[in-house]
Amino acid sequence: MYAVVMLGSIYSLMAAAIFVILDAVDVAFTEAAVGAGISTILGLGTIALTTGEEKKPSHTKILPLVVVCLTGAALVYGTLDLAHYGDPNAPAQQHVGPDYLKEAPIKTGIPNVVTAILASYRGYDTLGEVTVIFTAGVGVILLLGNWRNLGRRREEDDG
Amino acid sequence: MAAVGLYNYWIVVFLMMAGFYIVIAHDNLVKKIVGLNVFQASMFILYITFGKVQGGTAPIIAEGITTYSNPLPHVLILTAIVVGVATTALGLALVVRINEAYGTIEDDEIHVQDEES
Amino acid sequence: MDSYLVLRVVAKLLMPFILIYGLYVQFHGDFGPGGGFQAGVIFASGFILYALIFGLKNANRVLPRGILRFGIALGVLLFAGVGVYNLLVSGKYLDYSVMAQNSVHGQHLGIFLVELGVGITVASVMIVVFFTFAGHRQAEGDD
Q1: How confident is the model at residue C99 (pLDDT cuts 50, 70, 90)?
Q2: Are C33 and B58 within 8 A, CB to CB?
């Protein structure tokens, strides 16, 4: 199980490197910090609190493999109509993106367009995201907060 | 000739299917959550490749650069990454509690215990 | 104990740099990659490093539970409060242009406060989640 969490962390780090190559520096920063940092340490904490071994598989995995191959084939068939990689005339580059790039330095005076969009143009989404993080924090406190030992916790001194 | 321009989507589909297979084929709950993370990361790569412009740089306005990559997918994925880690934290907390309630984190054993009670 | 000496010394040397780097990423997010989320996670990782090396009891003394839980709510309150203030002044929620005389200065101030709120909440939540995971004791057995 330890190897599973570590491989997930390495995968996040590779994804962060891919993001840097694709010119997404903010996203790479966040993915490296969050994926390779917080997710790994939470996974290790979970393994420490539950078991560190896994059972041998009880049934053969033919049906999941068939389902995955069929879904993959359908998705590849669906990608045949998409725009080519890096195409400047793709529909994704047409409507709002270039407008943000032109307007954001003038209206907000901030060179980092991603921060300007995140905080100003799409501020509602960021408010919702902060609320989601708040809810996750409250949820973890409620689930794992040692509520039963509330009275005894003050006297127990444990590291 | 379509392969040259579309190979990034096929890589994303392969990663997505790998994550999907981990989620549906394994019984261990922690492995399922790690598979979900793999799936999410492949989706992020898909969106970021949508925003890449040939010959562009990072969308930080600087002197002398004319072509920038599209900043809009970056903003959406930034939110999605942080929401993903919030979901992972809650999911792992639930796994710890399930382990306390059932004594195991394997899916079929939990199912058996549920059917017995 | 000697084998832990290297860890303790290095952690003590590294922690101020990690925290200052977190603050740098937070406030320099306007000019380079960075912003609230990245800064919050880096700031939290400094305190997580401290808790890993020096134990959860010392970490709870450095950052008591009350301050962390207050921090979780403070960031969201700051963000929503900026929006409500803009609503009262100009009639549009989260319209930063009215926060100062000049519209561009208003945007600067609004983005600064909003990113600060985001950074505070993200850092507090990450620290609280780690402390909760580490301090959870099972009903029977230990670790």
Answers
A1: confident
A2: yes
